[in-house]
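go over whats below:
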Amino acid sequence: MVSVQRHLAVLRSALQPEEQERLWIRAERAERGHSGALLLTDRRLLFSGLGFVDQSQEAWPLTVVSNVRVTPAGLELHVLGAPERFTGKAKDLQQLADLLPRAERTDDSVADELERLVRLRDSGALTPAEFEGAKRRLLQ
């Protein structure tokens, strides 16, 4: 089994030059059953996890994260309107939730969201890979 320190090393290697680490916690991506680590920076929320047959590595700009809350089922949030849920120690999940943006997403149309993603990419807030991943999730 891959240690959480290995996942954290992977996440830290993905940091951009001026990006500042704020907090990391052990977590499991609930729907996929991937155990690993969540890393919060001043710009993004990153996850690296390993399941029984596959792995996941995600990087979500904070500008596309919304509806953050901690419930008995874990940390729930939306990425471009799509739900994500993580489990872990309640104290760690709450600490992370307190640092994440609290904005509620409006019911923007897909076209509005795509325009927003293009603006974020063009401004440099999203890398081309992050843009493509966000666009793919939005269009699913």
Notes: The beta strands are 21-29, 34-41, 44-50, 55-61, 65-71, 74-79, 82-87.
